[in-house]
Amino acid sequence: MEQAEFIRTILAEREDDLPRLVFADWLEEHGQQARAAWIRASCQLARVRANDATFGELIELRWESFRLCRPEWWQDVPGVTQQNDRGIFRFRVESRAAVTKLGKLPWLGEAVADGWLEGISVEKCDESRARLQAKWPDIAQQVPLFVQPVPQISDAGLRFYLELPHLWGLDLPAYATRNPSIRLLDRRTDLRELNLKDVPTDGAVAPLMEQVGRLSGLRRLSVYHFRQATDDDLEPLSGLTKLRQLELYWCSSITDVSLARFCQLPCLRMLKLVGCERVTEAAIAEFRRSLPTLQIEQV
């Protein structure tokens, strides 16, 4: 198995530690002990609390091993947060200046190809930032993107992001669902992560959920403040057969009917329910007994 195959597996199954740890074993076997140690320490740190006895030791190991394995071409970029997610980075961009600088980095493609970078998160996206990203060279536009549009994004801005060739993640504010270009959403069967924030306009919940139900590549879905959404409204989500993580916040009208549907999703590993007051503790307890591999959190 070649390095490129390991990296493709990590990106395809990014919620799981196992592909990362298998890659770490392969790296160690091929003389890259420091990078292997960095990946393992990064995965362990994601699973322990700050008051754990091993936390300080793991922090030091992660820092020292990265110092030893850091590529010569790697550099810090002003305005860009380099976020370590269990041994692979995601860049988080907040300013217009950083959007411009990032597009000019000559090593972005190499960082992705070598498994150092999984993607770029661009926050506060509007039409002006869309124009800046449109000027990125081809090598930068091949990097997977996770975008967070501003609440009042224009239709032209939303269309630009929905038509990006490598859009993997999207935070969709309620106001954006009023734009005509929202009809493009269900074409993005390659979308991996989707956050739906706040209630859309009246009568828009069911059509929006029908679109979401056609996003066949979705791995993680978070839904916030859909208080009026019914079991019938969320029924299309039961077709998301690759979904691994589902988070529902203050969807206070759904019942045990929705819980039963979600627990049948074949790849689901995490179900988080916050403020879903009509879902009963008895139903949750029953599914915990019958589906021990599914982690259910209720708040």
Automatic annotation (TrEMBL):
Protein name according to UniProt: Repeat-companion domain protein
GO cellular component, one term: SCF ubiquitin ligase complex
InterPro entries: CHP02996_rpt-companion-dom, Leu-rich_rpt_Cys-con_subtyp, LRR_dom_sf
Source organism (scientific name): Tuwongella immobilis
Signal sequence region: none
GO biological process: SCF-dependent proteasomal ubiquitin-dependent protein catabolic process
